[in-house]
Design a protein that fits this description.
Length: 299
C-alpha cells in the first residue's frame, strides 16, 4: 500500500522541482525528504525524478504518474471532508414524506427552501403519500420525517408525533353555487351537496377529520367522485361535481370556477403533524424539525 504522506511529498517536489525548497515548505530537513521519495520510488518500481547537482526533473514515468497521484489525494481530502460533514450533520441524505394537503402550505415550501439553503450538501428527497403510508415507511427506514394530518395508531410505539399547528378548514364550492355568495357556510348547508374527498382506502388523515366533523353534526356525506390529490379534488369542484372541505392553505390553489368560504363551525381545523422515529438520532432530522418550528414562529 502506498504511503499517502509520501504521495504528498512527491507532489510538493514535483511542484518545486527542487528538494531544498520542497523541504523548506514542509519544515523538514532535505535528507529525510530525499529518503521518503526514494522509498516511494521503491514501492512503485520506477524512478520519479532525474536528479543532478543542478537540476531535478520528472522522469517520463513521473509525469504520467503525477495526475493519478494528485487525483488520489484529492479524493482522500474529499472523503475526509464528507466524513466530517456527515459526523457534524451537514451532509448526507434526508427523505421527507408529506400529505397532499400540506404541499400547498407556506410552511412546507419555506421549510424546504430554508433547509436547502442551510444544508446545500444534503441530498433532500420529498415524497407525497397518504398519512397511513408514511407510518410504515418511517418504521422501515424509507422515510426520515413525515408531515401528516393524522395521528398514527396509539399502539405504535416506534413513531413520535409532534403537533406543530392547527390549520382552519374551509369549504371549496363551485362559484355558481348559491353558497358561494355567503360569507361563510355551515356543514349542514354543505351536506346538501356531494362531498368530494380522497378515496376511502387511501389512508387520508384529512378524510378522517372531515368524517368526524360530519358525525359530530349527525350528518351523512353524499357520495361524490374521489381524488387522490388535493389538486384533483379542487378540479372536481370546478367541474361542478360537488363540494370539498380542505385546509386553508388550499386557497393558494386558484382555480376558475372555485370559491373558498370559511366554515362556521368552531374547531374545524386540521393538525400539522411531524412524525419521526422515536429512537432517531440523525442531526439532519433534528435540524429539519427545528426549521419547521422556526418557520411557524415567524408566521
Amino acid at each position: 500500500m502506498i504511503d499517502l504522506r509520501r504521495l504528498r511529498y512527491f507532489l510538493l517536489v514535483s511542484d518545486e522541482l527542487h528538494f531544498g525548497r520542497a523541504a523548506a515548505r514542509l519544515h523538514i530537513a532535505q535528507p529525510p525528504l530525499t529518503r521518503q521519495i526514494s522509498a516511494l520510488e521503491a514501492d512503485l518500481g520506477f524512478r520519479l525524478f532525474d536528479r543532478s547537482t543542478r537540476n531535478v526533473t520528472l522522469t517520463s514515468e513521473g509525469r504520467h504518474f503525477l495526475p493519478y497521484a494528485r487525483a488520489v489525494l484529492e479524493q482522500v481530502d474529499l472523503t475526509a471532508s464528507i466524513t466530517s460533514k456527515l459526523a457534524a450533520g451537514s451532509a448526507g441524505h434526508l427523505a421527507v414524506g408529506y400529505a397532499s394537503s400540506i404541499a400547498l402550505s407556506d410552511i412546507f415550501s419555506q421549510t424546504i427552501q430554508t433547509f436547502c439553503s442551510a444544508y446545500p450538501e444534503v441530498q433532500l428527497t420529498v415524497e407525497e403519500g397518504a398519512s397511513s403510508t408514511q407510518w410504515s415507511q418511517l418504521i422501515e427506514g424509507r422515510l426520515d420525517i413525515g408531515m401528516s394530518r393524522m395521528q398514527p395508531p396509539t399502539e405504535d410505539a416506534e413513531i413520535q408525533t409532534i403537533c406543530l399547528d392547527n390549520e382552519p378548514l374551509v369549504a371549496a364550492i363551485a362559484s355558481d353555487s348559491p353558497l358561494a355568495r355567503q360569507e361563510q357556510v355551515t356543514l349542514t348547508e354543505l351536506s346538501a351537496y356531494p362531498l368530494i374527498a380522497f378515496p376511502t382506502d387511501y389512508g387520508s388523515g384529512l378524510n378522517e377529520i372531515i368524517e368526524a366533523l360530519y358525525r359530530r353534526q349527525a350528518l351523512i356525506p353524499l357520495p361524490a367522485p374521489k381524488g387522490k390529490q388535493i389538486t384533483s379534488i379542487i378540479a372536481l369542484v370546478a367541474a361542478g361535481r360537488g363540494v370539498a372541505v380542505v385546509p386553508q392553505c388550499t386557497q393558494t390553489l386558484v382555480k376558475r370556477g372555485v370559491t373558498y368560504r370559511p366554515l362556521a363551525e368552531p374547531g374545524a381545523t386540521a393538525p400539522l403533524l411531524v412524525l419521526t422515529r422515536k429512537r432517531e438520532r440523525s442531526p439532519l432530522v433534528k435540524a429539519f424539525v427545528e426549521i419547521i418550528e422556526q418557520t411557524l414562529r415567524a408566521k
